[in-house]
Amino acid sequence: TYPLDVAAALSTDRRSLTVAVLNPTEAEQQLQLSFRGVELSGHGRLWRMAPPSINANIVAGQKPGVEVEEQVLEAVPGTVKIAPFSVNIYEFPAK
Is 87:48 a contact under the CB 8 Å cutoff? Predict the structure, then answer.
């Protein structure tokens, strides 16, 4: 997965799979997702924090330079694009 940092874990009740993907580089990366040993179903969710640049900041009283965005995923994607300097948390229901 280099240069990405990727970790995945099943919830304790085994009803959802969470995948964390961090891109510490200044270039967009692609990651092919495939899972063995778990059957995923239906819609998922993505939380992404992707600043417009490495110099983005948060100043009290001003609009944040980076925010967490949430997306609904219609299906488990085969390939995902990972924005530069981003943190991406995917959650998929498991059967």
Answer: yes
How far is C-alpha 55 from the geometric centre of its chain's CA atoms? 21
Read off the pLDDT of residues 41-82 as tens digits, 9 standing for 90 and up: 878 999 999 998 888 888 899 888 889 999 999 998 889 999
Nearest to 93 by CA among 43, 29, 49, 52: 43
Identify the residue with better confidence: 76 or 6. 6
Q: What is the pLDDT of residue 32?
A: 94
Cα 84 to chain centroid, rounded: 12
Residue 17, φ and ψ in degrees, nearest 5:
-115, 130
DSSP 16-71: EEEEEEEE-SSS-EEEE---SS--B-S-EEEEEE--SSTT----TTS--SS-EEEE
